[in-house]
Design a protein that fits this description.
The chain is an all-alpha fold and about 300 residues long. It has 11 helices and no strands. Helix 2 crosses helix 3, helix 9 packs across helix 10 and helix 9 packs across helix 11. InterPro entries: MCP, MCP_dom_sf, MCP_transmembrane, Mitochondrial_Carrier.
């Protein structure tokens, strides 16, 4: 143990991974991601409805007004119980895995934003195995017009009609969305924080610390969605496909392009970017500050 401590002291980039540290990451990721989810959920519902709608002329405002008028304001929160319950374990997996691996690889002496590119991609891959079943249930609830969607009723029906594989529909589309998406997300956030210090004095940076984190987090969230959004469109189509012989990712890509053209792959991008800024700004800023305080 003494030799281990000396190794950590000799390398300032290498920090110990203690139980207290991991517990702090777990708590910070849970609270921050739940806040972000609640803030951004209505626009996420609008995005899913737009991706499943055959009316190409319906925009973000039109879809939002139509849902409120026909189904009431609570329709914007359809299916939130599934991701809200899943936000805690999923955010723990992504954020805690990312931070623990970064600390574990501290001996590489890489700049944090460069290291985050790799750790973010790996975290996204690991989190996928938990996230996809939750996302299948959420997407189907959001795409449903009218009626009440209860997971206690729908989950057995899904398993009966489609089997356990039905819970993993769209896995590879989600993989190609999340692995590069999380890589860009953490890389951009850490990189933007570094870049912001070049334009501000230390006093100003300390004074506007939380605002800087909010802005960097918001932009990072938007950049990650821009990179991965076409796969999100495909993922939604695959997850909401209730047929007994679902299409593959390649077939879904081809069908979307054949029926709607290339522009459809940006369907729902506007509400997603509008949602991404406040959601990810709050999520990353709160996570950062809580992690520092708890450590």
């Amino acid at each position: 143990m003494e030799n281990v401590d000396k190794n950590y002291e000799a390398n300032p980039h290498l920090k110990q991974i203690t139980l207290k540290y991991v517990a702090g990451q777990v708590l910070a990721s849970s609270v921050s991601n739940m806040l972000g989810l609640i803030i951004g959920y209505p626009l996420d519902t609008v995005k899913v409805r737009m991706q499943m709608s055959s009316e190409s002329s319906v925009g973000t405002i039109g879809m939002l007004r139509g849902m409120i008028k026909l189904e009431g304001p609570f329709s914007l929160f359809k299916g939130m119980s599934s991701p809200l319950a899943g936000a805690i374990p999923y955010s723990i997996i992504i954020f805690t895995t990312n931070e623990v691996i970064k600390r574990k690889l501290g001996y590489l002496s890489m700049q944090e934003h460069n290291l985050s590119l790799y750790t973010g991609a790996f975290s996204g891959f690991i989190g996928n195995f938990f996230y996809v079943p939750v996302e299948v249930l959420k997407s189907r609830a959001q795409a449903q017009k009218g009626g009440k969607y209860t997971y206690r009723e729908q989950l057995p029906l899904l398993l009966k009609s489609e089997g356990p594989r039905g819970l993993f529909k769209g896995f590879w589309a989600t993989f190609w969305r999340d692995v590069p998406g999380w890589a860009v997300y953490f890389y951009a956030y850490e990189g933007l924080k570094v870049a912001s210090t070049r334009f501000l004095s230390q006093d100003k940076a300390r004074q506007y610390d939380f605002m800087i984190r909010l802005m960097c987090g918001g932009v990072a969230g938007q950049l990650s969605w821009i990179v991965s959004f076409p796969f999100d469109v495909v993922k939604t189509q695959m997850m909401c496909d209730m047929s007994h012989k679902p299409r593959t990712m390649r077939e879904t890509f081809a069908q979307i392009y054949r029926q709607n053209g290339v522009r459809y792959f940006a369907r729902g991008l506007t509400p997603t970017l509008l949602r991404a800024f406040p959601t990810n700004g709050v999520t990353l800023a709160v996570f950062d500050l809580m992690s520092e305080r708890l450590e």
